[in-house]
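User: Write out your own:

AI:
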Amino acid sequence: MSKKNRANPSQAPDIKKTFSVKTIRKGVLYFILFSLLSFSILFFYNNTAKAADVIKNLQPSYILLAISMSFIDMWLGGWRNHIFARVLKPEIAQKVCFKANLANIFMGAVTPSQSGGGAAQLYVWYRSGINLTNGFTISLINWFSTLFFFPTAAFFALYFMEDQFSENILSFLLKSGFSIFGTLLAVILIAFWKPIWIGKGARALANCIGQLNSNWKEKLNKWGQKTYEAIQEYQNNCKLLLTKHFWLLPYSFIMTLILYFNKFCLAYVLLLGLGVTAPFWTVIATQVILMFVLYFAPSPGASGIAEFSIAALMSGILAEAFIPIFTLLHRTFLLFIPALLGALVVLSELRKHAEE
């Protein structure tokens, strides 16, 4: 890519901090260890002797369909970002957003609570000429759709599944999940409608701290001013996207609904591949609750927590021998494959960046 297509170098992410080899290696190691330990326990305690029979009886047609749905999941994740990216940068290709989504999945899988995913996505966009403010705007609007979708879907799922869960579990889900999503949704709304408040607050804070130490004053004032200017640019982007292109926000929500519904249906297809018949909407509701619980799981890629959560929530639908196989397939198609492809994207971009 030519230099003229690059974003402003002064806005480049700090690669050493965001993508340090040490951080990635540690994250990958923890992710693999937690996952292996979890699967070892699941196979050991869930009739491992019959697991081979379950694998032999897998129906290839449904597994092929699951592979197709896994690709659709990755494509939809990229397209949901592309609908905004092409407004801010018309020449941006959809494949860039596809790669950025994969990078997001990989770094989200190797960092606690998916904390590195957003930075990876911004980095791939930056490498393709989308500056950080524009990238942040795209991410924030789509995150708003996600934060709105999950509590709404989880509310109906919990209502639908009320008789299948104890009061303690329901209480935990309501108190933890809804409080986290509700708080973040409120913050995002403020960032949408009154972002300049945040900019003014950052500038005022920098000025106050700068009065305490003269050595910090100049740097802090520059940081406060840059933050204020970046948020002004972000506000202009929001106005452009949500006034001149007002249809993009509902479009984003519809794409979010389709994206996650495809994930939920993939789980149902895996059950069919195992030869298991289960009520369709019960499976969908279970998947909604599962992803609602796992969205902010603290371990890298929710490893450990995800495997046991899948096993616990699906135990009312699956016999013991099927649980570890279903869990393995579920994690493979919805995380392991996308994360592996995302690793190739991140490593490729880092190699090109180092060469340049």
About this structure: The CA atoms of residues 11 and 65 lie 42 Å apart.
